Amino acid sequence: MKAIIWTKFGSPDGLEFQEVANPTIKDNEILIRVRATTVSAGDCEIRALKFPGWIAIPLRLYVGITKPRVKILGQELAGDVEAIGKDVTRFKVGDPVFGITGLHFGGYAEYVALSEKTPLAIKPAHLTYDQAAALPVGGTEALHFMRKAAIQPGEKVLIYGAGGSIGTYAIQLARYFGAGDITAVDSAEKLDMLRAVGANHTLDYTKTDFTQTGETYDVILDVVGKSSFPGSIKALNPNGRFMCANPSFSQMLRGTRTLGPNGQKIIVGPANPQGEDLLFLAGLVEAGKLKPVIENRFPLEQTADAHRYAEAGHKQGNLIITV
């Protein structure tokens, strides 16, 4: 099969298009013919090991010390079940599926073998493979935080770093859950797109510090972990919720907690996506209440170029790799 092989840590130059053997499946695994996958921020960070030491050290023990032990990246996909192990009960040959590969990775290839317990779901007929591949990671992370936010009708929401996959879904899900006013913060070239997916207000972070405007919010989601933490807390209304999808080590250690007499809450921690979450998101897409933002598509052999584009900070929503 054709695949993108991860040959070295660092730049996208370590991603090489090669011919390799097809994977074999175990009794509890399914073989998926991949039709579409994505370039996520997580794929780029793992490829380059751009993590704080407390994450990078255990991650390197897993993916490889001097060179990658995991050979094929790709954390989300959509495709068709090509074969099943004898113990598989959730899927049958021919099923169109989509989901998250997690730390197994493997999406950057024509075929991948995954446990049937992997967060996977049947792809609804009205979703294209591209749309389905763009949903799992960004969609479930955004859904996790918007559910944690427990948005009340009419509340004000701000999303910092809103222009990527998580942020574009978070804007739409905040609206779905009842937010009355949504502010999206990102670079200037992404602001038109953010208004198109539902933001009432947009701020260019290079020109305006939202913590200095005097505006306050009921919910603040920092997707990229780069907002001022003290400033964000000051910008919260009483009983407001500050959520960080990319928390610092100290924030992770402290975990979810309530601050002082105003009842403001800090919420950190990753999603634990399930197949039911994928179906919920797919249902919203089918109903016209959620739209995957797909900026561009690259063929599998140009995956390294797609990584370069994403790393330059240009990515709006999702980048699709067609397989």
Beta-strand percent range: 25-35%
By secondary-structure content and strand pairing, the structural class works out as alpha/beta
Could you give the count of β-strands?
A: 16
What is the percent of helical residues? 25-40%
Structural descriptors:
323 residues, alpha/beta, seven-stranded mixed beta sheet, 16 strands, 28% helix, 28% strand, globular
Helix-strand blueprint:
Blueprint (H helix, E strand, L loop, with lengths): L1 E5 L8 E5 L9 E10 L2 H8 L4 H11 L12 E9 L11 E5 L10 E5 L4 E3 L6 H6 L1 H14 L6 E5 L4 H12 L4 E6 L4 H6 L4 E4 L12 E6 L6 H6 L1 E9 L4 H6 L2 E3 L4 E5 L6 H12 L7 E6 L3 H9 L6 E5 L1
Parallel strand pairs: 8-9, 8-11, 9-10, 11-12, 12-14, 15-16
Antiparallel strand pairs: 1-2, 3-4, 3-6, 3-16, 4-5, 5-7, 13-14
Structure description:
By secondary structure, the chain is of the alpha/beta class. Helix content is 28%, strand content 28%. The chain is built from 10 helices and 16 strands. The strands form 3 sheets. Strands 3, 4, 5, 6, 7, 15 and 16 form a 7-stranded mixed sheet that branches. It has a 7-stranded mixed sheet with strand order 10-9-8-11-12-14-13. A two-stranded antiparallel ribbon has the order 1-2. Helix 4 crosses helix 5. The chain starts with a strand and ends with a strand. The model has no long low-confidence stretch (mean pLDDT 93).
